[in-house]
Amino acid sequence: MNEYFLDVIKNHYIDFEGRARRKQYWMYTLYNIIINFGIILIAVILFLATKADAIISIASIIIRIIGLALLLPSLGLTVRRLHDIGKSPWWILIIFIPLVGSIIFLVFLCTDSERGTNEYGPNPKGIN
Question: Up-side HSE of residue 114: CA atoms within 13 Å toward CB?
């Protein structure tokens, strides 16, 4: 497993304080996607081999359980990512504006860290 994914799970499970680098956010997201696609791939292979509809249901339940287990660390990481660019956590609500809100939020998540220390803490890159 990737150190960024495990760091969020082990050390920052419900941490909404401080800042998170862009790399940490996207590596965590990448591993989250890989885990979900892996479960789906295994379910499809098992379904094609056995033709048992229950396999798809079980895979769906497993993905939902993992999603619930990762909800708080994902939210905490997103809040810390917003802190890193100097934005309030309330900016998460922009995703509820159809289409435009999601694009703006994606731009926020891709924006480089604010240099130096901001109101949320020191730069996690160590650059002033």
Answer: 17
Q: Is the pTM of this model over 0.85?
A: yes
Count how many Cα atoms sit within 13 Å of the Cα of residue 69 in the half-sphere of its side chain. 10
Distance CA 120, CA 128 (A): 14
For residue 12, the one-letter residue type is H
State the average pLDDT over residues 49-68. 87
Domain ranges of the chain: 3-110
pLDDT tens column, 3-12: 888 888 888 8
* Burial letters 34-46, b for 16+ CB under 10 A, else e: eebeebeeebeeb
